Amino acid sequence: MASEVSLIPAPRRLERAGGSGAFGGDARTGVDPSLGPEAYRLTVSAGGVEIVGGDEAGVFWGRQTLRQMLGPDAFRRAPITRGPVTVPYVTIEDMPRFAWRGFMLDVARHFLPKDDVLRYVDLLAAHKLNVLHLHLTDDQGWRVEIRRYPRLTEVGAWRRRTRMGWGEPPLWDERPHGGFYTQDDLREIVAYAAERHVTVLPEIELPGHSQAAIAAYPELGNADVVDTAALEVWTDWGFNRNVLAPTDGVLRFYEGVLEEVLEIFPSRYVHIGGDECFKDQWRKSPTAQARIGELGLRGEDELQAWMIRHFDRWLAARGRCLIGWDEILDGGLAADAAVMCWRWYGGGIAAAEAGHSVVMCPQQEVYLDHVQAHGDEEPVPFGWVHTLEDVYRFEPVPPRLAGTPHAANIIGTQANLWTEVAENRSRVDYQAFPRLVAFAEVAWSDLPDPDERDFEDFERRMSMAHYARLDALGVGYRPPTGPYPWQQRPGVPGRMHNKPRKTWRMAN
Ligand code: TNX
Fold first, then answer.
1. Looking at the whole model, is its pTM more than 0.85?
2. Which tops the pLDDT comparison, 13 or 262?
3. Mutate to test the pocket of ligand 1, among 133, 203, 209, 276 (most ligand atoms within 8 A of CB)
4. End-to-end distance of the chain based on CA atoms, in angstroms?
């Protein structure tokens, strides 16, 4: 008997024709551009299986749906049954709600080896997510080989020790930690992702979150106010005051970095960070103050905006678009720069109303480093509690934009996984899954308003089929009954946010 079609993400239109047929592994495919980008029509009938895509990506997403219909074993790396599988007769017409369906992996706080990144490309593709954002640089590590500046990885990719969790007094893992991707590793990741219609978005942070770069090249820091030669790659978490100096030398250095980055990553967008830049050192630095004077700026915030605008123009001149965290809005941006909105919905609303493209990823909703259940069993609880249900009820378009022409500027949404307390693949799997499944459905499907979503149906589809698919894929997700003992981290304290979490209805 054919199993019921249970698809995650849920397709737009699904007609069950009654009956079923044997599928031996061949689907007829074709492209019909009138269907639209990434759309597909999947037909299973007595005549066989046919997938027509609006483009090649659409054909690929159609194949992912077919794989879902074939049962959990279709997600193993090799077939375990011989012969045909039975599939129900259906017609599915489907297309994504958002063009940008992203997942950010922070490979800077903890390095994730290349194979694990390639595996995440597969996991994204299986869930019809199409952007892998790699957070490649931060205070705690520099993870991309830059040929003209070898010390960025010789020095910047390694740290002496690592703070475990967020407790006071700090707890240290005294083992050195590090690693980086060679340019060829990254080319391989980009090519592997492209075969799966996933775009890899590189992020090179500036002017904050830069201590690893400064440890490698002390002249990048504010050497007139701190002894930058004494800085090491940071071993702690949180806000860091060691930011880049606003000098021509620093601009040229990062242009050099970005030239190599552009050669590796063909993506239209390039992420330059821009978040959480502490201004203390600029306030005290005669060099920074002189620059503010020369440029006629009204203080340190405008100095940051000037640096961002520099790279905005620099990227635009090379046919690319800048994207950055919502702090980049503060100083005015080129028309085609895009904003990744993380501090609640406000920055995204302002950016969308000003005509910028916006990727919605508010930390109050879709930060997968945040803890996923109440209780004291969760490993190193951080942030706010975002349960599976909370993520399923996340709505990327805030009420204020819904139904207005500006809503079209919300080009998509992204779930972000920072790795201060996710030190390896198992921890990353645990934080990402099953919540990334709910997120994938939010990003792809047309769901009603948050309160009206049928979470019970989603849970039913999870337990009927999707946990089994994740098992077949070898994903170390959080079981619905709570973590296994080996998924817990007794004795490593976390840090919860104490302000109440805002809700979508408040985003007006
Ligand atoms: C804020 S989101 C950060 C990250 C941290 C994260 C922890 C953003 C642009 N900056 O540096 O890792 O919070 O949740």
1. yes
2. 262
3. 276
4. 50
